[in-house]
Design brief:
The complex is a heterodimer of chains A (482) and B (215). By secondary structure, chain A is of the alpha/beta class. Chain A has helices at residues 3-6, 11-18, 44-53, 75-79, 88-104, 119-126, 157-166, 191-202, 217-220, 224-232, 248-254, 263-273, 324-337, 363-373, 392-400, 403-409, 459-468, 474-481; strands at 20-23, 29-32, 35-38, 63-65, 107-108, 134-137, 151-154, 168-171, 175-182, 210-215, 241-243, 286-291, 298-300, 308-310, 352-355, 384-387, 413-414, 435-438, 453-456. The longest helix of chain A has 17 residues, at 88-104. In chain A, 60% of the residues are buried. Chain B has one domain (6-171): Aconitase, domain 4 (Alpha-Beta Barrel). Chain B has a seven-stranded mixed sheet. Chain B is globular.
Amino acid sequence: MGQQEHNKQTLYDKLWEDHLVKSREDGTALIYIDRHLIHEVTSPQAFEGLRLAGRKPWRTDSVVATPDHNVPSDAAERAGGIAGIQDEVSRIQVQTLDENCKDFGIVEFGINDPGQGIVHVIGPETGATLPGMTVVCGDSHTSTHGALGALAHGIGTSEVEHVMATQCLIQKKMKNMLVRVDGELGPGVTAKDVVLAIIGKIGTAGGTGYAIEFGGEVIRNLSMEGRMTVCNMAIEAGARAGMVAVDQITLDYVKGKPYAPKGEMWDKAVENWSRLHSDDGAQFDEVVELRGEEIEPQVSWGTSPEMVVPVSALVPSPADEGDATKKAGIERALEYMGLNAGQKITDINLDRVFIGSCTNSRIEDLRAAAAVAKGHKKADSVKQVLVVPGSQSVKAQAEKEGLDKVFIEAGFEWREPSCSMCLAMNADKLGAGEHCASTSNRNFEGRQGYGGRTHLVSPSMAAAAAIAGHFVDVRDFQKEAS
Amino acid sequence: MKAFTQHKGIAAPMDRANVDTDLIIPKQFLKSIKRSGFGPNLFDELRYLDEGQPGQDHSKRPVNPDFPLNHPRYQGASVLLARKNFGCGSSREHAPWALDDHGFRAIIAPSFADIFFNNCFKNGLLPIVLEEEIVEQLFQEMYAEEGYELTVDLEAQVVIKPSGETHAFEVDTFRKHCLLHGLDDIGLTLEDADDIRAYEAKRREQAPWLFDAVK
C-alpha cells in the first residue's frame, strides 16, 4: 500500500486522531472527551467516588445533566416535581442528581425544566452535542449522537467518574465497520426498519469490537432524526459507537440550535466539520451491504433485537436452525414470548403499545405515528397506548402541531417526557404475559416489565398495531385508510 | 479496586448465549445510589419465582429450584462459565457489581459485550475469553463433576483445570497491570495531567466552540 493510500482515513479514524491526547506504550490511549451527559441512574456512585477521593471535576462546563429514567410520565404526578415522585427510591435518585449537580456546579435541566428530556434527545436538539465531538454518557444508547458525525458511546459508572476527574477515557482503538445501505426505501419503511434489518443481518454481537459507520444512499437520504434512530441501535448490534458522515442535512439541522456556534464561529466550525467523512478509498475491516428496496417494515418476535423478521414473515421455527446454541435460544424465546413457530406475525395480538424512548420519541417519530392514528381509534382489546415525547421541546412542538389532540382522539395517552416504558423504571410497565408493540430498542426478557413481551417496531407500525389490535403491515393499512 | 492475582473456586453455569445486563440485574434495582448490595438480586428473574423489589427481604422469596445457581452443588461458586456475547445490552455497571457482590471473581466465556467487558476490569472481576470448544469442554466437565474447581492465574494468564491441564488467555497489558496491583486508573491518568492540559490548549485554539459552556 502506497503512502498516499495509507493516509486515507475513515470517519472514525479522524475522530479518534482529533481526540488523541496520548498513545501509551501499553497499547492504550488517552482520548479527550468534549461532552459528558449524565442522568440519575449511572452517576450517583461516580459522584460518591469523586468525594471519597477528594477529587474535583476537570471541566464542569463539559457536563450536562438531566433526569430521565425515573421521572414519572403521568402529568399529575409530574406536576409535583421531585417531591411529587411517589416511588421513594426513584425520588431519592432524582433528588441525588439534583444535589450532586448543585454541589459540583454542573448544569442540570431539572425534572420540569423546559430543557429536560431523554439525554439522547436533548443533546442534539439543543446543540449540546455537535459534529466532531467525543460524547460519552453512562448509557449504552449514547451511540445516538454519532448521527451528528461525532464519536459517541456508552460508558460504565467507573468511567463516568474517570471522565469527570480527568476529561479523558482510557481506550483502545476499535476496528472499522461500514454498513452501507444503498438504493431506496419503499413507502412506509423507516429508519427503524433499516436498523432492525441491519441487526437481523449481522446479529446482536456482529458489531462487537467495531465502530460502525452507516453510509450509502438510504442513510444519506434519512433526516437527522432517522439517522439518530439508526445510530441509537448500533449497540444492539454490539457496537459501542455508530456514526454518519457530516453533510448538508447535518449542517441544516445543527444551525441555529441554542448551543451551536454562531456567526464567525459557525463558519469556522463548518470548515472544520467538512472533513468529517470517510475518505474515498479508506479501508474498513468489515463491510456489510443491504439494499433499501429489499427492506420491509420489521417486527421483532423474540427476546434479542436480532430476533426480527419482516411483518409479512412467519415466526421462525427452531427446527430450521442448525446451530445448537441458537436453536436453544429460539426455543426459549418462543416459550417466553408465548408464540408458536410458524405463526403469522400479523396474528400477534397486542395488549399495550408504547411510542417513545431515545430511539423513537423525536418530533418526526410522533408525526409518523399521528399520521397513521389520525381519524382512528385504538382497538378495544388494547389496554393502553402510551405516547411519550422525548423532551419538553418535542412535547411543545407536537402540541403546537396538534399531534397531542390526534393521539388523544384516537384513545392514546399523551404523557410527559421520560424514558418511560422503554425500561420500566418509572410506573409505566407491562404486566406478565402482555404483548407490547414498542418503538424502543430492547426486547430482552422483563425489559418493559416482569414477564412482559416486547415487539420492536417503528412508530407508524406501532400506531397501526394499536388501531388494529394486532400487527398489520402499515403499507396495507395506509392504503386501506386512504 | 481490589487486586486479582490468582483465584481458585467452584465453577457454576450460566448456560445460554446473549445474556444481557437486564437479565444480570433488572432495572428496579438500579434505583440504588450505592455500589454494593446487588448480590441477592443477581439474575433476579431467573433465581426467584416472583418479581423482586428493592429493599425487600430476599430470604423469604420463593426460589426457582430449576436455576443452577440455586443448586447446593454450586453454592459458594466464584467462577462463572458462560456462553457467547455475555453482558450485552445496557451499560449498567450494576451488572459487574452484582456478580462481584454475589462472590464471583472470574467469568469465562467465548465472547463478551464490549461495555460489560470493560466494566468488569474496573471492579476487580476478571472476564476471560477462551475458544468456544474449550468453554464447551469446561461446561461438560463441570456438569460431570460436583465441586469442579478452576484456578485462574492472571500473572501467568492461564486457566488451570483440576487435571492440571492449562488454557492460556489474552489480557491487555494495562488492564492486567491494574488488576494485579489493584490500581485506581484515575490516579494513573492524572499522572498525565500535563499532556491533557497541553492537548486542551491546542484544541481550544483549533476548535474554540467546543469549549463554550452550556448554560
